[in-house]
Write a structure and sequence with these properties.
It contains nine helices and ten strands. It is an alpha/beta fold. It has three domains: 83 residues, Arc Repressor Mutant, subunit A (Orthogonal Bundle); 85 residues, 3-Layer(aba) Sandwich (D-Maltodextrin-Binding Protein, domain 2); 106 residues, D-Maltodextrin-Binding Protein, domain 2 (3-Layer(aba) Sandwich), CATH 3.40.190.290. The strands form two sheets. Strands 1, 2, 3, 4, 5, 8, 9 and 10 form an eight-stranded mixed β-sheet that branches. A two-stranded parallel ribbon has the order 6-7. Helix 1 packs across helix 2, helix 1 packs across helix 3 and helix 1 packs across helix 4. It is elongated and about 75 Å long.
Length: 293
């Protein structure tokens, strides 16, 4: 029996779905079922109660699952240590990032990493913050990149960068001629923001409420590019990280205005599953981020 079978079994238990376990391992659902039967045959026992509609382990299955977690952990540790002994950095690292960080912050880091470790493949996925956390918790990604990191018992964060918030407005806005502005001047304005469940939107509401700024949210989107498009056509103003707009200043029909003394910051952080043994390549990727903090 191959150790990969235990990995697939572990994914099946965690995701409670044959289709999701198959997707996570790039195999078919029938292959997941076949490998489950192989484990049962190897141990000469039934590990899944097939009389239930939902996935439920037998007592023997629970025992195998618990102990297989330690086997997989030790296998990951061994693989990493052998790799480090030979100073070999290869394989694939899976990075899950929010749209804004992935599109506007990460490219320079990726270029630097590829130059330093040409034998390592970097697989990128862009998603909402909650989906990034899900990918890390479910081991679908090795490392995630998020703004406004939120404490979670299963996650470990490493801040790597702070960015200033800037005001973004259309060329028709009354603020368009300004070079700097104070937050209190935005009272009564219409604002374009991220969708309500997203940390960036919650942080914006908290900031405006703390400063007693009255406002109206006119449009909400799940990514920064749509917010910029909405601002261009004068749907409202937006407060965004400077990295999301600095390369657009001379290309797009909006104005970027700094807040006086740049007092409002966004914290960016890498995130990985707490207790997970990271490969040498993933460790090097995270190390590359940290000096920028």
């Amino acid at each position: 029996m191959h150790i990969e079978y235990l990995k697939i079994f572990s994914d099946l238990v965690e995701k409670k779905s044959f289709s999701e376990a198959a997707k996570a391992n790039d195999i078919t659902q029938s292959a997941v079922s076949q490998q489950l039967r192989t484990i049962e045959k190897h141990f000469d026992t039934v590990i899944v109660d097939r009389s239930q509609k939902q996935l439920r382990l037998t007592e023997e299955g629970q025992k195998i699952h618990r102990d297989s977690q330690e086997i997989l952990r030790l296998y990951e540790k061994l693989s990493r240590e052998i790799s480090e002994m030979g100073d070999v950095f290869n394989g694939t690292i899976h990075v899950a990032s929010t749209y804004s960080i992935g599109l506007h912050v990460l490219p320079d880091y990726i270029k630097s990493f590829i130059r330093s470790y040409p034998n390592v493949n970097v697989r990128m996925d862009y998603n909402r913050t909650d989906k990034v956390y899900e990918d890390i918790i479910s081991n679908n990604a090795d490392v995630g990149l998020v703004a406004y990191p939120q404490a979670h018992k299963l996650l470990e964060f490493k801040p790597f960068r702070e960015e200033s918030l800037v005001l973004v407005c259309s060329l028709e806005s009354k603020f368009a001629r300004r070079k700097t502005i104070q937050l209190k001047e935005l009272s009564g304005q219409e604002i374009v923001s991220f969708e309500s469940p997203m940390p960036a939107h919650k942080a914006l509401l908290k900031l405006l409420e703390e400063e007693n700024i009255s406002f109206e949210i006119t449009k909400q989107f799940d990514n920064v590019e749509m917010i910029k498009h909405a601002v261009e056509i004068d749907c409202g103003i937006a407060l965004l990280p400077v990295s999301a707009v600095e390369k657009d200043i001379n290309k797009r029909s909006f104005k970027v205005i700094e807040f006086k003394n740049s007092p409002y910051k966004v914290s960016l952080a890498s995130v990985h599953r707490k207790g997970k043994i990271l490969s040498a390549s993933v460790e090097k990727f995270i190390e590359l981020l940290i000096p920028a903090h």
